[in-house]
Request: fold
Amino acid sequence: MLKDFEAHVFPNENFIDLDMYQFGHEKCKPGHSFGPAARQHFLFHYIIRGKGILIDHDLRNLTPSYEIGENQGFLLKPGQLTTYIADASEPWEYMWIEFDGMRARGLMDIAGLTGKNPVFTAKFTEYLPEIKEHMYYILNHEDEDTVCLIGHLYLFLHALIRSVNEKGYRPQRNKLVDFYMREATAFIDNNYEKDISVQDIARNCGLDRSYFGKIFKEAMGYTPQEFLLSFRISKAQDLLKNSPMSVGEISHAVGYENQLHFSRAFAKFCGMSPTAWRKSNVR
Reply:
């Protein structure tokens, strides 16, 4: 049974391909609004009933607002400055899931949800019950096994993609590039706490640095430097949230010998210092 408002923080375990951060449900009060604000991760809202407006401040000169109603949805991308407002007479009731990972951006692009098109409208409505089924499952089983919930996140995204593109997600595979990406991400996962460089990662894969950087960017959508930074910051967030370690100890634990360099990188990535982030995210 869903309450008028409930939100759950997901126990982040650093799944590289796709990870979930929080999920929830809300019956909005008339005129309820949130923003202007920017998110750190992808945040998808599915409208169960009611209506409202999404304002994208990054595109204010192009499309100031979007009217969104029942069985539609909207995606907020990382760093996107938005405000959303429930209708005064028929306010939204919606569910949301916050997620990220190296496959997240590509999957959202396939679903047609981009910075210039944040509104979800199903072309093949027969997939809407499946979308809601997996969102409801996640909302009602917060104590379920983590892998099970991540599985339902994948199935939710599968239904979301099929609802706008019935052919689904069938990428052209390059088995050799896939092999190199698995080698690279495994090397990062096993060595991120050390002083490793992109050159070290490329060498581990047996590739020239410039060629490695090119295929990594094409395959992942991020440069190796961006991916390594994101991975380390994600690990640091886990430690800030779930351990009593000091910021200095955490900086060493995620591969930064210099605490000042770590704090600057963290602030640039998250928009606040490690200490401020810990205060905001630890209950």
